[in-house]
Amino acid sequence: MNKKILSIMLAAAMAASVMTGCTSTATESSEDTTAASAASQASSPAASAADTSAAEVSSSPYDKIVLGETGTDITTEIKLLTNRTDMLDDTYAGTSWAEYLAEFNKIYPNITVDIEGITDYSTDSLLRLQAGGWGDIMMIPAVDLSELSNYFISYGSLDDLQDEIRFASDKAYDGQVYGIAITGNAQGIVYNKAVFEKAGITTLPTTPDEFLADLQLIKDNTDAIPLYTNYAAGWTMGAWDAYITGTATGDATYEKQILPHESNPFEDKGDGAHAYNVYRVLYDAVADGLTEDDYTTTDWEGSKGMINNGEIGCMVLGSWAYSQMQAAGDHPDDIGYMPFPMTVDGTMYASASPDYSFGIASDTTEDNQLASMIFVKWMTEQSGFSYNEGGMPIDLNSTNWPDLYAAFDNVTYVASEPALAGEESLLGDINAESELAINNGGDEKVQSIVEHAASGDESFDDIMGEWNAAWTSAQETCGATILN
To answer: What's the pTM value of the predicted model, to 2 decimals?
Structure first.
C-alpha cells in the first residue's frame, strides 16, 4: 500500500489562553448572522459542482453531493487533523488511513488528503483551532456550540440532515449542522469472554452490585486484573461521564435539558441508578482492590494486548474500543462487548453518542471546502469506517451493524436530545464554571475518584458532595433555574 499520500507532521504545541466562564445570550443576533454567513459559504462550492440551483444547494450542501459525480473536476490537496494516530502506523492491525485513502482515490484521484495525527488531541487541536491555519478538516474539539460557525462551514440545515445522518443535532446550532460524526458509539464495557468464563461468570451483570461481585470472582479465580482503569492515559477516565446520561436515566432529555437545572445531580437518589451509582462502581472497585496494583503505571497502548491475551478482565470504554482490542493480539474471538450494568425501572439503557465529528474550515478555499465535504460524505457512506471500528453507522440508510452489538438486543439506545432553545450554551457554561466538564474532557475529576479510593483519604459520598456544591455554585453564577 502506497503511504506516500500521507503527510505525517506532528505539530509543536502552541501557546494560547482559553477563557472560560458564563456567557450572555446578548450575542445571539451576531451569532445568527455568523451562522447564516457560514451556511452561505458552504453552499457556494456545492453549487458550482452540482446540476442544481443555488437555492436548492444552499438548503443542504452535503445532501446535494453525489459521490462519483460531484466535484470530479477538482484537483486539490486537503489536510485532515485526526486523533487516530494509530491508523497512521504501518503496523496497525485494522484498516489504516493509507488503505482508506487508496480507496477514496479510486473515485477521486485528483483529491489528495494529507493526514496529520495529534497524540494529545483534545488539548492540542483546540490550540491549533484558535491559532488558525490548521488545514481543511478536523475532528471538532471541545468548542461551544455557539462558536462553531466562527470556525466551520455548515453542512446544511438540521431539518434536512437529521433524516440522513445519525447524531445530526450534536454539532448543530441555530438550525445549521457544523459537524458530522466519524462514527457512533454505544456506551458499554469491553471484556474478555475467556476470563469471564474462567471466573465462573455465566450471566452478564445488570446492576452495579452484580458487576462488582463479578469483578471479585475474576480476582478470586483468575490471574487477570478484574477492571483496568487506564488512569495514566487521562482521557480514558473521562469516558465514565458518558454513562451518567442515557445509560443511568433512560432519558434522552437528561444531559442537555435536565442536568443544567437539576439540583444536586451527583447525590444518591436511592434507585441504584443515576450518576452516583455510575461513579460508585469505579470508587468501590479501586477501594476493594479490583483494579491494577499501581494506577499511575497503566499503559493505554499496552492494555489492548493485555485484554486480548487475558491479562485484563474488562475496561469501561465506548464500543469504538472493541475493534482495537480485537486487533491487538492472537485472540480476537475472546473480546466481547456488554452493556454497562445498570437497570432503570426494570429496563437497561445504553447511551448512544457520536465520536469526534468532522468539521470543515470556514477559512479555506471553496474548492477545498467542497473536496472536504466530498471526503466526509465518502467516509460516512462508502468507506465502511463505522463498521470496521465497531461503531454505529452514521448513515441512517445503512443496515450494516457490527456483531458486537449482539449483547444489546434487549437494551434501549438513548441519544441525547438538543438543548432547549436559548440554552444551547448553558451546559457548557456550567461545565466550565464548575470545572467538572461533564462529557467534555473532565478527566481529572474522574482520576480523583481513583486517587481518593486508593488512598482512602476521602469517602465517595464526600467526593460527590463536593461535586454537587461546585455544580450548584456554577448554576447560580450562570443564572440557571435549579429544579428539585
So the answer is: 0.73
